[in-house]
Amino acid sequence: MTSQDDFERTISYGENALSLIKRNQVSAFPRNYEFWYTYSAGFNIGLNKAINDILRDRGRITATDIDNIYAEYLSPRRIGEQIEDVGSQVSEEISQVISMIECSLAESTAYETSLNGANQKLSNTTDLSRIREIVKDLISANEENSGINKNLRTQLEESQRQITELQSNLEVIRFESLTDELTTLANRKHFDQSIDRALAKADETGEPLALLMTDIDHFKRFNDTYGHQTGDQVLRLVALAVKQNVKGQDIPCRYGGEEFSVILPRTHLRQAVTVAEHIRKSVMSKELIKRSTGEHLGRITISIGVALYHPGEGVADFIERTDQCMYAAKRTGRNKVLCETDPEVGEYRQAVA
């Protein structure tokens, strides 16, 4: 997005990142800038906690600390390596299962050969003592085969348990890759995938599709005044209000920074405005208290834009129209919901055209 609000917010993150690079006396390499920019933006709660723990204990972050934290929380290879590791374990389990089955087939073939041989021997003798020996050998072979089958069953059950556990691990990795750690809402990657599917579905079925874009009012000032931890508390509060006011089919996401979005399939414009009002009122009804001191920090407000999808429209245009509604709400007083049919939105579009 190209709004003035985006510009000011991202410049603030960048300036703070450079300040932290200087304060900790680390080289201004792109990776180090990414590291401190991510910390300043507050997207990655695990990374922020790791940094804050070190700063609390030692007062500064070293280049080695950055390498370690980056590898754990930011490295683009991290998810890939986790998937590769689980995939290798699955392959190993499948190889073991195949080996067990091959061994069982060999044992079954030997048992079948033993049965055929015993049958032939029984057909060729009437000697009672010889018959007893053959039957005794058959019983022994049967017991051995039963033991082999029992062992195979135990091994297969254990392999099934292991594979089920590995499948769960893969699901956890997938969930983590699509979830914002701080708010537990869907992340931007999830939003991008979901909005594409939602538009395709709306074009296919002709059903309505609405989109909400939400921005926290005066968040930068609040974050600068009370610090990142309290800012994180605000983000969680808004995320909770969003989650509590959407239906099962709706997809609430953290779009970026202090912006949230909700994809509303099979929802008309007026219905979407009602959802947005419920979210706005829910946020405003909660008084924020600083956890570390118990200090009352007042109430948070949000501005929300609402738009309805136009069949055949591109994703970028749909998001841009919704953004314009949100920015119109912010520029005309904040703490309000505006949709594309409201006159304030038309005036805002003319002003920025």
UniProtKB/TrEMBL annotation:
GO molecular function, one term: diguanylate cyclase activity
Catalytic activities: 2 GTP = 3',3'-c-di-GMP + 2 diphosphate
Gene Ontology BP, a term: cell adhesion involved in single-species biofilm formation
Keywords, comma-separated and alphabetical: Coiled coil
Residues covered by the GGDEF domain: 207-342
Coiled coil feature spans: 149-176
Pfam families for this protein: GGDEF
Record carries keyword rRNA-binding: no
Protein name stated in the entry: diguanylate cyclase
Organism: Rhodobium orientis
Lineage: Bacteria, Pseudomonadati, Pseudomonadota, Alphaproteobacteria, Hyphomicrobiales
